[in-house]
Amino acid sequence: MSGPTSIAQILPENYRFLQQHVYSQAGIVLEEDKDYLFETRLAPIVRQLGLGTINELCEFIQTNRRIDVGHQVVEAMTTNETYFFRDPAQYDAIRNVLLPRLMEERRDTRRLRFWSAAASTGQEAYSLAMLLIESGLSGWDIQILGTDFSSKVLDRARSGNYQQIEVNRGLPAALLVRYFHRVDSQWQLSDAVRKMVDFESIDLRASLRALGPFDLVFCRNVMIYFDTETKKKIMKELHGTLFRGGWLLLGGVETAFGFEESFDRQSMGSATAYIAR
Ligand SMILES: C[S@@+](CC[C@H](N)C(=O)[O-])C[C@H]1O[C@@H](n2cnc3c(N)ncnc32)[C@H](O)[C@@H]1O
Questions:
Q1: Interhelix angle for 35-48 vs 12-26, to 10°?
Q2: In the chain, what are the domains?
Q3: For residue 1, what pLDDT is reported?
Q4: Which residues sit with their C-beta closer than 6 Å to ligand 1?
Q5: What is the pTM assigned to this prediction?
């Protein structure tokens, strides 16, 4: 049980400060009663700064105006969970429906553009890159953009270096053998796949239209952290980044409900694609 000097004994005003800080910096809504989350995620920062409690950390950020520490707090409070070929039905739909159409429509320019809009440590963008090579598109002019709010996860994504536990999640053994090589206890993704993806730090609440137009945008498992207003704004911007007929793929529990005027909803097996009107 937490004692009075526990790292997690957060004063109500500091709890509110943390909620507001994370909301203003990343748009992420942290509900009440998340003390345990603050404790596990912020304890390493408290220790690293030689402080004793999360309350001291809040005071430290406010009195020293340490933007870097403030940013570290937001990154720590962000969920970065991801894995290769997450939601395989969506990759099946890309392989079986989207790519055959694009290969026909773009046979002259042979140019395709994709965006992984909350890329985290890169597995989503790299899964797509491997899928494109496997689908015979390696001779095409392909650009995949991977973006995230957090520069920490993007550094990892750029490295293309994954731990055993990460390649065990979702990556077919044949693709591990074909596109990775072992470096000590890690797996290094081949340069051929890495160079297909550019990673950039972008906040989804920014103006996004200039990034497009894309044939496909992944924006998965991030909208769940935003409030309705933020979601609406982002959905509008995402629509503006897509070619007409381009696909938006959301996470399993996310929907484009309320955007029927902008997107046609199409089911493909157990996957759902939102197709830009
Ligand atoms: C749970 S991960 C999802 C990763 C991947 N899309 C997937 O579905 O496997 C959510 C990511 O969204 C990023 N994120 C959170 N708020 C963001 C914002 N305002 N702008 C851009 N990225 C944000 C986080 O840094 C995190 O890496």
A1: 80
A2: 12-77 (1.10.155.10), 88-276 (3.40.50.150)
A3: 39
A4: 26-28, 78-82, 86, 118, 120, 124, 148-150, 153, 203-205, 220-222, 251
A5: 0.95
